[in-house]
Amino acid sequence: MKKWKPNRTEFYETAVAMGFYGRDDGGLSGKKDNVRKFWEDVFVKLLCRNFMENQAPGDRKLRILDLGCGSGEGFELLTHIPSSPYAKGNPRDFVLKPGDIESYTGIDISPSMISQGRANYKDLGNVKFEYGNLEDGLPQAVLRDTPFDIYFSTYGSLSHLHPEALQLLLEQLFKHSANGSVLLFDTHGKYSPSWPKYWAETKTMLPYTMAYLVPGDKRKEENVEWFNLCYWDVEELKALLTKSAKNAGVELNLLYMLDRSIYVGRHMDTGLLSGKAMPLRYQVNRLLDHGYRGEVEHLRVDLSHLETYKKGIDKKIWERLVDYQRKWNKLIYLLEALMNSEDAKVKNFIENTDIELMSDDLKFITWLYRNNDRFPVVDFWASIIGPQIAVILRNMEMSYPEGVGCGHGLLCAIEIIK
Ligand SMILES: C[S@@+](CC[C@H](N)C(=O)[O-])C[C@H]1O[C@@H](n2cnc3c(N)ncnc32)[C@H](O)[C@@H]1O
Prior knowledge:
It is a single chain. This protein is α/β, with parallel strands linked by helices. It is built from 14 helices and nine strands. Helix 9 crosses helix 14, helix 11 (315-339) packs parallel to helix 13 (356-370) and helix 13 (356-370) packs antiparallel against helix 14 (380-398). The longest helix has 25 residues, at 315-339. S-adenosylmethionine (SAM) is lined by residues 68-70, 73-74, 108-110, 113, 132-135, 154-157, 160.
């Protein structure tokens, strides 16, 4: 019989070494926080779904090129787009499975990102990562390859490029594409409330930092690293696209250009580029977490500190900011009234609300509240109301049909016609 060893810990040693026992603050902060997963990624996924479902996976496998791919986040995102609810009889969780992709090629300038991407997807033969500096255009190996169905780039990779380099890259890409290929990318929007200091700037490349990944109490000004990015005005970006298309001899069908993360951009919370930290992203991260209740006093959007900057921007951009602020704050007002059980206030509010678009959502929230005892959860506010409030705030942002450049991200989808 084997001797009983009382103090065996090797499994735990391994688990600790692999990081499983580190502190986990869930999705409240960090690169893949709740806002990234349930707001920003969902924003991209829903827009991709619009045209992906028409591509009927199964008929033909897709070829995807990801520009500034990091460690393959784009592959993860594209293979986790929820199927439409109306696709009855289609039990697929996701529109596109890894097997529906003929090839995914990721290009990045960072050797560490490339190594990490290769390690992440070492078991998938249709996924590859190549080193490339997009300032020099597409790598030769890519240019020799057959056209891609989707030219993809997310989370600001193309904002790293100077406009002249971006123009050349787009010309190459348009020439390389096939009729019907889609270009889906984002850049940083110039008129985000996260960086009003840039609204009237005429310089092309302006400083940016990823210091938001360091928790506020540990962030020291001298340790903040800055690098330059291009923050894009909508009209200037459209002009650049038009010029690149003309030079490449193609036509473009602009499917959409939308503002993403208007009030939940990472730098809303740091205040590093606005002079006023407003931890709205942190608060929305809390709403989306099933363990935290909404802190209404910190969830209101206040634009008063931006008044001095507004003369530097087009009127329609300011109007968009104010319109979204008004809708946002109305919802938070309702949340507060519900939390305080102020029934008369709620009733009056619902009946007299002047925002048609929102009234169904507001009624729905009120219905949830009135039926709270039907939900078998421990904390109704944290598990049911909070996530729904966050989703409505996100959907309000997504409901604007045309971006004006006031989001942290400016998301574009274009069909290339040859
Ligand atoms: C914010 S990350 C986005 C990564 C990834 N697309 C994602 O969704 O998380 C920006 C990426 O662009 C890459 N990048 C920056 N400048 C580049 C260049 N000139 N050529 C190629 N990649 C570049 C960086 O190395 C980094 O991986």
